[in-house]
Specification:
By secondary structure, the chain is α+β, with helices and mostly antiparallel strands. The protein is built from 1 helix and 2 strands; from the N terminus they run αββ. It has one helix at about 20-30, and strands at about 35-40, 45-50. The protein has a two-stranded antiparallel sheet with strand order 1-2.
Length: about 55
Amino acid sequence: MGLEIYEYSPKSYLGTGLGLYISKNIIETHGGIIWAQNNNNKNEEGATFSFSLPLNK
């Protein structure tokens, strides 16, 4: 049984995958939405994640 150690790096592609899951749950709990856009058509790698939350007046 091996031990994996993750180090934070802004250029790292490794992670546990929990960040988006947690973000999605928080945003949707507050009535918002979250979406992703593929950056391949912009000659960039990865994706852009955005979210919107309703304003309460």
